[in-house]
Write a structure and sequence with these properties.
- The chain has a 4-stranded parallel beta sheet with strand order 2-1-3-4. A 4-stranded parallel beta sheet has the order 6-5-7-8.
- The chain is mainly α and 679 residues long.
- It is elongated and about 100 Å long.
- Helix 3 crosses helix 5, helix 22 crosses helix 32 and helix 29 packs across helix 30.
- Helix 25 links the parallel strand 3 and strand 4.
- It is 57% helix and 4% strand.
Length: 679
């Protein structure tokens, strides 16, 4: 061994020992923070979790949703491939005769070397574009910090050191992989050419760059657990332990029976629902902030942030991270010191942040826990507090009498379960809006007419119906949700109901995804758009009227995003003779919220622009003749939004109607302009 090899053999192990020790010491601290949090059972469905890890973790499926994501894939896979080279260099520092080809074979070793050579260039390309997007031609929703610049610079140094080391290796003639399998490094080899090979320069450049490369890796091991790029360690576990799609559509469960029992025996007076301190979140909710990549996609897709509200979902996640790192067993950190009330109540719970997060962070679940505590403390926005009182006393947000819950259908010959005397195939759960809101009543009357024409066997609860519980749950009032849902479940069991039709996506979501948390699972929960499409496909409904209309469809968040129901509404529009579907720029899972979800329908909106007005402008700018909806909240919000259209669009706003899909179909089925109205 020459003196270069001796120095390398001494320095490289020391670098690894120092880097790993620094990384492990920090990881111990981070894991100890997670251990202070509430438990969360995330060790089921191993097959599904591994499949998601391969698809969204290593496969980077969600990352690849935009151009910047492609750059990240280059960096991600470049790092993975180059670790084999780093490991080989480490082993050769201790055993100079070692070569990877002796383990995996010469051909695989050659192919791996080519992949490393190409991907290192792709990493440099990606880093160059990232620097331009961050600092030279700043793009929207891109984080610009000194930490980011330092990391990008270090990655460049990491790639250059491997090119220089391989180039010197080729020039010295000591390369064990043929030079043609490292074409880019081979291009640099003439820089170190010498008549006497291996020369001192070649050896110095080879071993010096190997040591520099591993020193950079050791520094990364120290810095990654302490800086912005902690996600390099936390992202893959976060993807693995993420909730499934149906679990995400439901807010995290609460065992009210256990809470009630605990409160009866608690003497401290400090027992409460929700998260007051950061350790009252679950360990997975504290892992979420550690996995944040600062890609800003949640920020870019958040309707509250886009319209100038206090909420920035990425910053909420960062605030929780700061709180968790400050928190100790003896000095708990209260969340409201880091996340304000304005932030948590600005959320529409549309789920766009969750849907677009490449590492499966559940922003909504964290906000829900903070709302639960605020509600338990009676720290609610004024209008919402009053609405919840009305909901509690009258089982609807408008404090209308339950005896008038079926007045909307007195002339429609619509049986109630009580009078029917048997269990129909379907219960039509009308909902609060459908029972009391004039516009939603028109929609439900159109729907009932279509269902009757198709011969569907269904009935309603009538005066026995209560709120589905969505409003209470999104507002954080878990006790009210629980009592409401339990009362509904008892009625469903009493009448033997196994299938339910809903015209409100919020009701559909709560029945489909949240009632199972209370032990009740329907055989089928079907949104009216899905059922109407099925009836058309079966030939039980016929559309005759020709409508030469351009129709744009606004996706309800709880239908299209949370429950993957975006296609049925569009198929219905396509089935209307003469109708043409036009899309808004943001549609399907990328649709912009109407602003009425997450209990926002019953809160004032004073900061910034109004969400519904922004969405209404987007709809008007499509040039559509009609705006189609499939949710009573969306109907109200978009109808109100049209009334506030800017002057340039006001004439069009006065011509365009907002209609539910059921109304559009009824127009075509009956060849008349409007469905029957309530008496």
């Amino acid at each position: 061994m020459n003196h270069y090899e001796i120095a390398r053999a001494v320095i490289v192990p020391l670098l690894w020992i120092g880097g790993l020790a620094a990384a492990l010491s920090r990881l111990v601290v981070l894991v100890s923070k997670l251990r202070l949090a509430r438990p969360d059972p995330r060790f089921d469905d191993w097959q599904g979790r591994f499949a998601r890890l391969m698809r969204d973790g290593f496969g980077q499926r969600r990352v690849l949703q935009d151009f910047a994501g492609l750059l990240h894939v280059f960096i991600f896979w470049g790092f993975i491939l180059l670790q084999f080279e780093t490991i080989e260099w480490t082993l050769r520092s201790l055993i100079p005769s070692f070569h990877l080809s002796s383990v995996i074979g010469q051909v695989p070793s050659n192919v791996l070397a080519l992949s490393q050579d190409v991907f290192a260039a792709l990493v440099l390309l990606a880093i160059g574009v990232a620097l331009v997007r961050r600092f030279l031609i700043p793009a929207q929703h891109v984080v610009r910090t000194p930490d980011a610049a330092i990391i990008l610079g270090l990655i460049i140094a990491l790639m250059l050191s491997r090119y220089l080391a391989n180039a010197a290796d080729i020039a010295a003639g000591s390369n064990l992989v043929p030079a043609q399998w490292m074409p880019l490094a081979n291009l640099l080899a003439p820089l170190f050419s010498s008549q006497d090979s291996p020369s001192s320069l070649q050896l110095a450049m080879l071993h010096g760059n190997v040591v520099a490369h591993i020193a950079l890796v050791a520094f990364f091991l120290y810095w990654i657990p302490r800086g912005k790029h902690l996600h390099l360690l936390a992202a893959l576990p976060n993807v693995f332990f993420a909730r499934t799609k149906s679990e995400l559509a439901a807010l995290p469960p609460v065992d009210i029976d256990a809470v009630t029992t605990a409160m009866e025996t608690d003497e401290s007076g400090d027992l409460h629902l929700g998260a007051k301190t950061v350790n009252e979140l679950t360990w997975k909710q504290l892992l979420d902030p550690l996995a944040c990549t600062e890609c800003c996609r949640c920020e870019a897709h958040c309707p509250a942030f886009a319209t100038g509200k206090a909420l920035n979902p990425m910053q909420v996640i960062h605030h929780v991270k700061d709180a968790s790192l400050e928190h100790t067993k003896d000095a708990p950190v209260e969340l409201d010191k880091h996340v304000s009330a304005d932030e948590i109540w600005a959320c529409t719970m549309c789920g766009s942040c969750v849907a677009h997060c490449p590492v499966h962070i559940d922003h909504v679940g964290i906000i829900a826990e903070q709302r639960r505590y605020a509600c338990f403390q009676n720290e609610l926005p004024g209008l919402l507090a009053n609405t919840l009182r009305q909901l509690e006393s009258s089982s609807n947000p408008w404090a209308r009498s339950t005896t008038r819950r079926a007045d909307w259908c007195k002339d429609l010959d619509l049986p109630t379960l009580k009078k029917l005397g048997r269990t129909p195939e379907y219960l039509f759960f009308v909902g609060c809006s459908g029972s009391y809101d004039d516009r939603a009543i028109q929609v439900n009357r159109a729907l009932v007419t279509l269902l009757q024409r198709a011969g569907v066997d269904f009935a309603i609860l009538g005066k026995e119906e209560r709120c589905c519980g969505d409003l209470a749950r999104r507002a954080g009032h878990e006790f009210l949700f629980w009592t409401t849902a339990k009362e509904n479940i008892e009625k469903f069991k009493k009448y033997g109901i196994r299938k339910v039709i809903v015209s409100c996506p919020h009701g559909m979501n709560v029945f489909r995804n949240e009632y199972p948390q209370l032990g009740f699972v329907f055989e089928e929960v079907v949104h009216h758009s899905e059922l109407l499409l099925r009836l058309l496909d079966q030939g039980k409904l016929q559309l005759n009227g020709h409508q030469a209309k351009r129709i744009c469809f606004h996706d309800p968040c709880y239908l299209s995003r949370w429950n993957d129901g975006a296609e049925a509404p569009r198929s219905l529009i396509d089935a209307i003779p003469g109708a043409t579907l036009v899309e808004m720029p943001r549609h399907h899972r990328d649709a912009f919220c109407c602003g009425g979800g997450g209990a926002r329908m019953w809160m004032e909106e004073s900061a910034g622009e109004r969400v519904n007005e922004v969405r209404s402008i987007e709809a008007l700018e499509t040039g559509a003749d009609r705006i189609a909806v499939a949710c009573p909240f969306c109907m109200t919000m978009l109808s109100d939004g049209l009334k506030a259209a800017p002057d340039r669009l006001m004439a069009r706003a006065e011509e365009v109607g907002v209609l539910d899909l059921a109304e559009l179909l009824l127009e075509s089925a009956l060849e008349q302009p409007a469905p029957p109205h309530a008496p």
